[in-house]
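Let us work through a complete example step by step.
Step 1: write down the sequence.
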Amino acid sequence: MAVKTHSVFDPAIILPAIGEAFRKLNPVTLAKNPVMLVTEVGAAISTILLVTGHGANFGFQFQIALWIWFIVLVANFAEAMAEGRGKAQAKALRGTQTQTLGNRRKLNGAIEKVAAEQLRKDDVVVVSAGELIPGDGEVIEGAATVDESAITGESAPVIRESGIAPLNIMFLKSPQSAILSGLIFNAIIIIALIPLALKGVRFQPLGAAEILARNLVVYGLGGIPLPFIGIKLIEMIIITIGLA
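Step 2: predict the structure and record it as tokens.
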């Protein structure tokens, strides 16, 4: 069963948004948006000047005040529309929780139908074309175009495919943990190189063959396995403490 998407021009969203746009004129509400709060203050000052008769050109002042109030109302209306559409999508999504079934793969390879709320972390779920994805997760095999409008509000399908699985020779847990581990490892290396850069390297009168052999040992044998070992150890630590 597909999740119902809501059009931008849905009267059920537009009509409440119109009233909400006027309710958002409350300065206490607008305080969350400093830009629009300042704009409303400017509109109020323009209106006061218009009513008190300050200024030579009434028509010009009237247009200025009208346009500033219009800008504030349009901004409030757009915000109310976004909130209304988000609430409608969330309500539709909650309605699918008791209706969605997932195809969970057992350890022996068999497929069983289970309710979405019974799925747990590390469960492997098989999703075929046209089926509703029963929960949040990571694609570990294959690729598909997915309709995420119930969550993001974006009507265009997006492509979802397995991330680092084909190249995951280090058996990292996820793309997120791989990126975070790599960043931490590079940061540690940069910090470790600072004393070396400040201290400098002692000159030694060595021949080209000796320098090449030493560099191959230090930067070849040391530089190739060290990142693999370091990134894997860092990932194990951040997974253990729950950072990724």
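Step 3: interpret the result. DSSP finds eight helices and five strands in the chain.
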